[in-house]
Design goal:
alpha/beta, Rossmann fold, 2 domains, 12 helices
């Protein structure tokens, strides 16, 4: 099976990572965003990401240029009408995803396979957005952040997912060099369910004054051999994304470990979203690189100062 053309809807962290990975192996990618400003931001962030790869000798300038040449930006979903595969990577909310699939149902060619990057939502319920003849063409393919470094993807079959669509999804993952883990259709699957529980407990641990930010992250890095701790990971994922996913899990399962920590909610409300905003549990420069400050090891009192006092 040869993969030539793929559409990616959503130019956020996940969508950019998927588009970059596909273009890096020679696939022609159409990256679709909801508006011109969002598209410009996505393409600029993509170039910045590739420039950082050049700076650490991961790719050459000519490779960067070739990757960018294979990614065509658009704000018109009709530009996806002839692609073989569409990867959906918009916000983790059911209604926007369902509305997107309803539109794509009437635009894309009959054999297009649709992959959703959802981490918490039901594939079967999302498939209900399509006409009955298309429902078997939706597959869950959950990429983890950062797409370029994490080697596992979760493959999720809905009630009506067809065998050919499942094979296509597996092929997309494998040509990207990912190891596929098949999981049952259940809120959070494996990686999101466990990751969110770790992150939520880490935020509670900070809020309750058990340890400082650096102590929490260092303890978990040393214990599990992780490259970053749970608070740093939350910053990478985006605190707003973590909050939305936890709210979805809390609604779906009602388990206390997914009830979002009040501190996490307050940080999101104050615009402290992690890498994307330049400040979360850590500080970041304009390229998204963490700014190390040996004198800043956040404890709850220091974080309260950042948040502007208790509400």
């Amino acid at each position: 099976m040869k993969l030539d053309t793929v559409g990616v809807v959503g130019g956020g962290t996940a969508g950019r990572g998927i588009a970059r990975a596909l273009a890096g192996i020679g696939v022609e990618v159409t990256l679709c965003e909801a508006g011109h400003r969002l598209l410009e931001n996505a393409m600029e962030a993509l170039r910045d990401q590739l420039d950082r790869e050049i700076a650490r000798w991961a790719i050459t300038e000519s490779e960067r240029d070739a990757i960018l040449a294979r990614i065509r930006g658009t704000t018109d979903l009709e530009d996806l009408c002839e692609v073989e595969v569409v990867v959906e990577a918009i916000q983790e909310e059911f209604k926007p995803k369902a509305a997107l699939f309803q539109r794509l149902d009437g635009l894309c060619r009959p054999d297009t396979v649709f992959l959703t990057n959802t981490s918490t939502l039901s594939i079967s319920e999302l498939a209900g957005s399509f006409s009955r003849v298309r429902r078997g063409q939706l597959v869950g393919l959950h990429f983890l952040h950062p797409v370029s470094r994490v080697q596992v993807v979760e493959l999720v079959r809905g009630r009506e997912t067809s065998a050919p669509a499942l094979r296509t999804a597996r092929h997309v993952a494998e040509v990207l060099g990912k190891e596929v883990v098949e999981v049952e259709e259940y809120p959070g699957y494996v990686t999101t369910r466990l990751t969110l529980a770790f992150i939520n407990e880490a935020v509670h641990t900070l809020m309750e004054g058990v340890a400082t930010r650096d102590s929490i992250d260092r303890a978990m890095k040393l214990r599990f051999g992780w490259s970053t701790g749970p608070l740093g990971l939350a910053d990478e994922m985006g605190l707003d994304s973590c909050l939305r996913a936890m709210e979805s899990m809390w609604t779906e399962l009602g388990l206390p470990q997914f009830r979002p920590c009040p501190l996490l909610r307050r940080m999101v409300n104050r615009g402290l979203l992690g890498e994307k905003s330049g400040r979360g549990f850590y500080r970041y420069d304009e390229t998204g690189k963490r700014v190390e400050d040996p004198h800043e090891d956040l404890s709850l009192p220091k974080l309260e100062t950042v948040l502007g006092g208790r509400e």
